[in-house]
Design a protein that fits this description.
By secondary structure, this protein is mainly alpha-helical. Helices cover 65% and strands 0% of the residues. The chain has two domains: 42 residues, Homeodomain-like (Arc Repressor Mutant, subunit A, Orthogonal Bundle); 177 residues, Tetracycline Repressor, domain 2, CATH 1.10.357. The chain contains eleven helices and no strands. Helix 5 crosses helix 6, helix 5 packs antiparallel against helix 7 and helix 5 packs across helix 10. It starts with a helix and ends in a 7-residue tail after the last helix. 39% of the residues are buried.
């Protein structure tokens, strides 16, 4: 029954946005009484936290499907594209997971805004930390703490995703190739990689990502309204 309520919330988010997330509407969507929300979660704030954790678990599974190769820079960019694909497919869920709340209608309990406190988020983030550790050990970048690299990388990817979902890259034909990929190259070079190696790794990652099941080139997608600012990643 709790899972039915979580799935109902996710469905409402996707179809109607955050304003639809109320105990009555969620319970109705799940085919349950309104009391079920309170008896299983305590209230909407706790339900929202469970929905966010469900999102982190989905992101964890997506990261777990990214193959580990001998090119950690490429692996990291594939993870960035995976994050972007997840966000494009679930814009309101992504917004909820990271506490942005476009209309302040989620009203999560204060600690729910900090994804770092969620065990489910930490499991997903562990994939990023591991990849950053492999990057440091590869010798392609200077001495740095994997945790610092991961936090910095997550910040610029999350910033890009947030801006794209808000439609800020509408003037670009392919914002992934024109904005995200060059930014990733610059990030890697700043860490100590050569520009040639960084460029080759990012381009290889884009080709790898296009070849994964369920992904399509940007030219095969619908317009910005369907993709929130561009074609499919890569």
């Amino acid at each position: 029954m709790p899972e039915r309520l979580v799935q109902a919330t996710i469905k409402l988010l996707a179809e109607k946005g955050p304003s639809a997330i109320q105990a009555r509407t969620v319970a109705s969507e799940a085919g349950l009484s309104t009391m079920a929300v309170y008896s299983h979660f305590g209230g909407i704030a706790e339900l929202i936290r469970a929905v966010a954790d469900h999102g982190y678990e989905e992101l964890d599974r997506a990261f777990g499907q990214v193959p580990v190769t001998e090119d950690p820079v490429a692996d990291l960019f594939v993870m960035a594209l995976t994050t972007l694909r997840f966000a494009r497919a679930n814009p309101h869920l992504y917004d909820l997971m990271f506490g942005l709340s476009m209309r302040a209608t989620y009203r999560p309990v204060p600690e729910a805004r900090f994804s770092g406190r969620s065990l489910a988020f930490r499991a997903a983030y562990a994939h990023l930390l591991d990849a950053c550790g492999r990057l440091v050990r590869s010798g392609r970048v200077g001495a740095a703490q994997p945790g610092v690299i991961a936090a910095s990388l997550w910040s610029f990817v999350h910033g890009y995703v947030t801006l794209e979902l808000a439609g800020h890259f509408a003037e670009f034909d392919d914002p992934v190739q024109q904005v995200l990929l060059p930014m990733g190259v610059t990030f890697a070079v700043g860490l100590g990689d050569t520009r040639e190696s960084a460029q080759a790794s990012h381009e290889a990652a884009a080709r790898r990502y296009r070849g994964r099941p369920g992904t399509q080139p940007a030219s095969d997608t619908c317009g910005p309204d369907a993709t929130h600012g561009g074609g499919d990643p890569g």
